[in-house]
């Protein structure tokens, strides 16, 4: 892998968190041939030139999962420096989509309540704790 300089422009990445009514979220395992193959992450991908972040999210979910995002709310942004790239991750939570997720790029998927899959990409780890807190708040307000 090539070493990315912290001065390199950040690559914008649209990331989607599919959340079922019970709070479970979908994680995907990076396929062979990609950096960090075998690591688990939330589905998404690079924003193309001239594309909005939300449009990139919708496109990536059609390409990777074969589903149509009906709505999604921006949740948070995280910038992370990997050895090979500086990425700016734009996270959305979607509770409404059309279709059942399929593995269109050969990756494994797992619905997770308490996340038990390993290893997780570095930038994904803090999000898991934040999601647990969000799910706890949602359970508290729905009771």
UniProtKB/TrEMBL annotation:
Keyword DNA repair carried by entry: yes
EC class (word): hydrolase
Transmembrane segment boundaries: none
GO molecular function: 8-oxo-7,8-dihydrodeoxyguanosine triphosphate pyrophosphatase activity; 8-oxo-7,8-dihydroguanosine triphosphate pyrophosphatase activity; 8-oxo-dGDP phosphatase activity; 8-oxo-GDP phosphatase activity; metal ion binding
EC numbers, comma separated: 3.6.1.55
GO biological process, one term: DNA replication
Keyword field: DNA damage, DNA repair, DNA replication, Hydrolase, Magnesium, Metal-binding, Mutator protein
Nudix hydrolase domain residues: 6-134
One Pfam match: NUDIX
Catalytic activity: 8-oxo-GTP + H2O = 8-oxo-GMP + diphosphate + H(+); 8-oxo-dGTP + H2O = 8-oxo-dGMP + diphosphate + H(+)
Family statement drawn from the similarity comment of this UniProt entry: Belongs to the Nudix hydrolase family.
Protein name per the record: 8-oxo-dGTP diphosphatase
